[in-house]
């Protein structure tokens, strides 16, 4: 499942719940955050000081085989 930097954080976690652990591993408190339905991955990475490319790679790697 490809994830993009313009995907909404809430959409990702709802459609692919296995990604929640990735958010938590990167210490992103997006789970349950009311802003998650407005923030894109790019917004969240910028807000939390996370390297977007590394985060997107981790999201993609989290997809079950």
From TrEMBL:
What name is this protein filed under? DUF1858 domain-containing protein
List the taxonomic lineage.
Answer: Bacteria, Pseudomonadati, Pseudomonadota, Alphaproteobacteria, Hyphomicrobiales
Q: DUF1858 domain spans which residues?
A: 6-55
Species of origin: Bradyrhizobium iriomotense
Q: Which InterPro entries match?
A: CHP03980_redox-disulphide, DUF1858, ScdA-like_N_sf
Signal peptide start-end: none
